[in-house]
């Protein structure tokens, strides 16, 4: 079994004066030849690697702390520490260190560092002086040293001995930095704490002493809004206030080396607050009286203000509790009726009281939103919508008088927490999400959206001042959150109340942040790719205000410009139905925008969609061919294309099509399978019936005349002139009848036939649509071939 006595963690002090864990291992001491002395060795328990190798120097000051910690400095700025799992292991290593340095193991530090100037001063002292007792913490705690120091303080203060008072300031500050709970218990006792504060008034660095005691005794007043009968509780409250005052106001700001030396003071305050909350929570008589006076209409405003502030501070103290204790705390407040009390307080006219009540409500929502949701749903069964707690919160948000809407922002955050499905519970018998969202959209959503509906009755906002716009921005942001997280309920509300049209009115606001909120709302809706939303947008022509905002923005390169272009780009890539709607209704307004390719891309995607709609047989033939397709080897395609581009057009005889040499040695029976023969007969039959321009190619295969291929192109001039006839009969060349691009533009339900060896490949790839788009765009720019070329290939 592993020896846990020697198990340690190795720590080093970093530049930020924080201890970094270097690993866990087992420590030993041994003579190291390389270091010429006894050294401390720590090997990692995981792989046995050496974590630490430190020679025990005779002059290094080693310090033993808290029975399981040894700390020392290797260099000026390199501190090390070993934290032992067991005290016995720490004692063994400490004895070894003391043995090397010739010290008594009972000491806690092996070296006392004294400056030379101090040594000389001590040597020069001729008189024997006083014999001081050993400087030990136990003497400070047990022999009344602190009380004697405070008696000395009162004497110095009476004699106005400023030098003595300055020395006492340094002594008391040094005792604080010892960071010992037992010393704090003495210093913060009822009979000592005011004298301790008095000592700290005489800072030698200040020309005049501070007047902290005068403030605490005359200015600061303790108000018992409800009489506290427990004297211990009252004393604990006084003590906590004064110690907090010492920490925040009296003690100087700790330096970088002292900031961790007051951790015990923080802990002292923390545990005091925990005790106060526990004692008040257990006093049922006190809490019952508190809530009775809060909700009593006869209570005057000043008294109610004090009661609410007390309850607010009470809840703030609860944040220091452990989770299980906090559960019990809020459960106690809920049983006492804190939510009905808050509802009464929020209905009052006093702004300060309402502000404190809002802070209390935020503690409840952050802790347990389900408790608040359950209360408001039960409340709706008995009360009208106007006096529901959640509607009171919405009304206070809407009526916030702060020009910066600080309170409204806080309340909006609480509403978002309440309607967030992520923190809603779901059980076998009850689904909180369904129940609460149904309640919210039935009883509360009309209150939330009322300012939006009232301000967007025309094509421009009725009020466009900064405060109104800020409020509308908050409302639209919450609606955007609902679009993302509430699918069914918000969709019905938006479509039935025509909310999107009203929100898009805000794009005409002179405040850019509000226009951007409106655009984000629409972008979130489009991003859902929901056809219900898309049909609603198309039916009501809701892209019109967006296009207007884009055109009114002009050539300015700003957030509005970027947001609108990104929206159209998303539609181009992902939403086909909206693509057609935009081009058919707004193309004339957008066709001149050429500094981005988004709108031309929309037009191109629209034309491709129309072309597929106009040629339904083509799609059905493609689906047939997909079941029989063969992929040609990429290297063969590259070789054939290279041969095509290297062929000189002048070398071709009239009427001769270019065929790769490897294909000329094959007979047409070897090349054609039954499907391709059927397609040939079908093409010949169609060419006799349709009186359109027909290109007929002749080719010589093994000295025999091959069957003629007649391909009729679409009547669209763009399609008929998309590629030079010279390339039209080459199998595998871009834009030829055998390529997927031309097949997509052909009005005849034929497929291209490409040959490779004795195999016939019917090529129709599912990913060729994008390539077709590029080819069509490029080919449409080519000029029609000269007449001489046409005549060369006509028969």
Automatic annotation (TrEMBL):
InterPro entries tied to this protein: ARM-type_fold, EVH1_PP4R3, P4R3-like_central_dom, PH-like_dom_sf, PP4R3-like
Sequence ranges of Basic and acidic residues compositional bias: 678-692
Signal peptide positions (record): none
Family annotation (SUPFAM superfamilies): ARM repeat (SSF48371), PH domain-like (SSF50729)
GO molecular function terms attached to this record: protein phosphatase activator activity
Domain of life: Eukaryota
Gene Ontology BP annotations: DNA damage response
Gene3D superfamilies associated with the record: Pleckstrin-homology domain (PH domain)/Phosphotyrosine-binding domain (PTB)
Record-annotated PP4R3 EVH1-like domain positions: 5-101
A Gene Ontology term for the protein's cellular component: nucleoplasm
Compositional bias (Low complexity): 706-749
Region entry Disordered, spans: 643-795
Domain Serine/threonine-protein phosphatase 4 regulatory subunit 3-like central: 140-608
Family the UniProt entry places it in: Belongs to the SMEK family.
PANTHER family referenced in this protein's UniProt entry, alphabetically: ATP SYNTHASE GAMMA-RELATED (PTHR23318), SERINE_THREONINE-PROTEIN PHOSPHATASE 4 REGULATORY SUBUNIT 3A (PTHR23318:SF3)
Name of the protein: Serine/threonine-protein phosphatase 4 regulatory subunit 3
């Amino acid at each position: 079994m592993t020896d846990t006595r020697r198990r340690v963690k190795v720590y080093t002090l970093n530049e930020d004066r924080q201890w970094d864990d270097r690993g866990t291992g087992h420590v030993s001491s041994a003579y190291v030849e390389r270091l010429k002395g006894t050294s401390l060795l720590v090997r990692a328990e995981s792989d046995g690697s050496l974590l630490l190798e430190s020679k025990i120097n005779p002059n290094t000051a080693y310090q033993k702390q808290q029975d399981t910690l040894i700390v020392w400095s290797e260099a000026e700025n390199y501190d090390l520490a070993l934290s032992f799992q067991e005290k016995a292991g720490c004692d063994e290593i400490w004895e070894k260190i003391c043995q090397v340095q010739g010290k008594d193991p009972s000491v806690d530090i092996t070296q006392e560092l004294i400056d030379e100037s101090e040594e000389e001063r001590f040597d020069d002292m001729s008189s024997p002086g006083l014999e001081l007792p050993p400087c030990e913490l136990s003497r400070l705690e047990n022999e009344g040293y602190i009380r004697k120091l405070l008696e000395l303080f009162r004497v110095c203060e009476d004699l106005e001995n400023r030098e003595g008072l300055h020395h006492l300031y340094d002594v008391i500050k040094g005792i604080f930095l010892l960071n010992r709970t037992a010393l704090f218990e003495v210093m913060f006792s009822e009979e000592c704490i005011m004298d301790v504060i008095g000592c700290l008034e005489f800072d030698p660095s200040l020309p005049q002493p501070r007047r902290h005691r005068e403030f605490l005794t005359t200015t600061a007043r303790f108000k018992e809004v409800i009489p506290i009968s427990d004297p211990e509780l009252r004393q604990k409250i006084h003590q906590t206030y004064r110690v907090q005052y010492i920490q925040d106001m009296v003690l100087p700001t700790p330096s970088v080396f002292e900031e961790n030396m007051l951790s015990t003071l923080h802990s002292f305050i923390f545990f005091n607050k925990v005790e106060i909350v526990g004692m008040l929570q257990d006093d049922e008589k006190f809490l019952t009286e508190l809530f009775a006076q809060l909700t009593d209409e006869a209570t005057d405003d000043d008294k109610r203000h004090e009661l609410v502030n007390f309850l607010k501070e009470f809840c703030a103290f609860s944040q220091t509790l452990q989770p299980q204790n906090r559960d019990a705390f809020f459960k106690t407040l809920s049983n006492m009726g804190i939510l009905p009390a808050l509802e009464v307080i929020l209905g009052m006219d006093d702004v300060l009281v309402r502000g404190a009540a809002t802070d209390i409500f935020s503690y409840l929502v952050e802790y347990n939103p389900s408790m608040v949701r359950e209360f408001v749903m039960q409340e709706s069964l008995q009360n009208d919508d106007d006096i529901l707690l959640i509607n009171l919160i919405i009304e206070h948000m809407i009526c916030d008088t702060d020009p910066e809407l600080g309170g409204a922002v806080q309340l909006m955050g609480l509403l978002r927490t309440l309607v967030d499905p992520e923190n809603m519970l779901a059980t076998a018998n009850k689904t909180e999400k369904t129940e609460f969202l149904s309640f919210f959209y039935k009883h509360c959503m009309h209150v939330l959206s009322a300012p939006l509906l009232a301000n967007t009755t025309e094509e421009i906002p009725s009020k466009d001042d900064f405060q109104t716009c800020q409020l509308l921005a908050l409302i639209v942001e919450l609606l955007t959150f609902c679009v993302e997280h509430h699918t069914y309920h918000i969709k019905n509300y938006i479509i039935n109340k025509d909310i999107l049209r009203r929100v898009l009115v805000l794009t005409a606001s002179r405040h850019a942040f509000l226009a951007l909120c409106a655009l984000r709302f629409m972008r979130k809706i489009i991003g859902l790719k929901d056809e219900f939303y898309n049909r609603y947008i198309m039916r009501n022509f809701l892209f019109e205000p967006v296009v207007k905002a884009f055109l009114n923005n002009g050539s300015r390169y700003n957030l509005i410009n970027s947001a609108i272009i990104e929206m159209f780009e998303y539609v181009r890539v992902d939403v086909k139905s909206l693509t057609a709607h935009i081009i058919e209704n707004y193309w004339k307004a957008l066709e001149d925008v050429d500094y981005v390719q988004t709108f031309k891309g929309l037009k191109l995607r629209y034309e491709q969609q129309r072309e597929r709609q106009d040629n339904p047989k083509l799609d059905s033939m493609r689906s047939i061919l997909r079941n029989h397709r063969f992929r040609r080897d990429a290297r063969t395609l590259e070789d054939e294309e290279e041969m095509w581009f290297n062929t000189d057009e002048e070398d071709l005889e009239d009427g001769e099509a270019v065929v790769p040499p490897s294909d000329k040695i094959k007979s047409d029976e070897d090349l054609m399978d039954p499907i391709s023969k059927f397609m040939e007969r079908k093409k010949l039959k169609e060419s006799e019936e349709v009186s359109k321009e027909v290109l007929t190619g002749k080719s010589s295969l093994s000295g025999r005349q091959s069957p003629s291929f007649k391909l009729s192109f679409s009547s669209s001039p763009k399609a008929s002139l998309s590629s030079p006839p010279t390339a039209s009969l080459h199998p595998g060349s871009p834009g030829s009848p055998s390529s997927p691009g031309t097949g997509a533009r052909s009005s005849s339900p034929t497929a291209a036939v490409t040959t490779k060896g004795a195999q016939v490949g019917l090529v129709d790839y599912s990913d060729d649509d994008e390539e077709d788009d590029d080819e069509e765009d490029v080919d449409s720019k080519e000029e029609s071939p000269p007449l001489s070329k046409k005549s060369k290939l006509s028969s």
